[in-house]
Amino acid sequence: LNIAKRLASAIAEKQLSLHFQPQVDLNSGQLIGAEALCRWHDEELGDVSPGKFIPIAEERGMIVALGYWVIEEACRQLAEWRALGHSMPGQLAINIAAQQFEEESLVANLLDSCASFSIEPSQLSLEITESGIMENPEKAIAMTEVLKGKGLGLSIDDFGTGYSSLAYLKRFAADKIKIDISFVRDMLTSDNDRVIVATIIAMANTLGLETIAEGIESQDQIAALLSLGCNQGQGYYFDRPLAAEQFVQRWLC
Ligand code: G
Ligand code: G
Ligand code: MN
Ligand code: NA
Q1: Among 31-40, 142-151, 155-164, which stretch is predicted with the lowest mean pLDDT?
Q2: Residues 6 or more apart from 151 whose CB is under 8 A from it?
């Protein structure tokens, strides 16, 4: 059973799928967007988690092709929902791997997929991890400026777990910071984590960036986040990542 080989054929034959996790306004509970998360069901291996297959795709030179499929499928799905009369509010967030972010063809590919499905680039937001940015910060900064110019949203994912310098952060044309799940998970029990969350929010406010908290599982976390000035969130408290049909039924109807 060669997992890398099976993954390569799954990508080529478009056998992956996307799930969608709602992102909500913490004050109103209203849907403000969603994150697209890749899923792979293999006939022999069963469900393989992205925590397992994304690193394989990155190591074996498949992440760029996988990422292009994700972009196209995200646009196709937005167009399908629109055609069904259930347009998604806000932006659909897509995870972009560091290697993909360094591809010159990324911008043209995004714009092509948008054009194919009559999607405005501003309906998409790209999530790139803090550590991904720091692999090649000058290049990432240049890329973000181009993307921003085209109207795409840009979030820094897993924030707080990388080693970005404030000097780079200031130059990086992001509009949102995603506070990493590890800090949100422990913010009610650990003073350190609560202070880290508070500091990230304060810093984001100073830089004019929005914040969204990942991994919200309780009403107490929502109250704490709101009191610190973060008013967007995502997590099992609201919903798990859902198949497209379920996402429509639960969030777009
Ligand atoms: O969905 P789940 O939380 O199990 O995802 C695990 C990890 O895989 C997360 O870090 C997530 O960002 C990543 N991931 C999920 N879908 C994609 C994708 O389409 N592209 C990339 N690059 N990473 C993804
Ligand atoms: O790294 P990234 O933020 O892209 O990863 C998102 C991952 O986090 C998804 O795989 C999703 O399944 C997972 N996730 C989302 N919400 C929660 C949550 O409330 N609790 C936990 N433990 N995981 C979550
Ligand atoms: Mn993400
Ligand atoms: Na994350």
Answers
A1: 155-164
A2: 120, 121, 122
3-state secondary structure of 91: strand
> In whole angstroms, what separates CA 247 from the centre of its chain?
16
Residue 170 has pLDDT above 90, yes or no: no
Query: Rounded to whole angstroms, how far apart are CA atoms 91 and 3?
Result: 33
- Where do we find the tokens 């890329």? 143
CA distances from 160 to 21, 74, 155, 197, 251 (A): 21, 27, 13, 9, 30
Cβ of 70 closer than 6 Å to ligand 1, yes or no, is yes
Decide whether any atom of ligand 1 lies within 6 Å of the 162 Cβ: no
Provide CATH code, domain 20-37+60-252: 3.20.20.450
Question: How far apart, in whole angstroms, are the C-alpha atoms of residue 83 and residue 119?
Answer: 12
DSSP E strands, 26-123: 31-42, 46-48, 91-95
Locate the domains of the chain by residue range: 20-37+60-252
Summarize the confidence of residues 66-90 as an average pLDDT.
98
pTM score of the predicted model: 0.97
pLDDT at 30 over 80: yes
Per DSSP, 251 falls in state: I
Q: Report d(CA 217, CA 184) in Å as an integer.
A: 9
What is the chain's mean pLDDT, rounded?
96
**What amino acid is encoded at 95 in this protein?**
N
| ipTM entry | 0.96
Please check whether residue 126 is in contact with residue 98, taking contact to mean a CB–CB distance below 8 angstroms.
no
CA of 161 to the centre of ligand 4 (A): 10
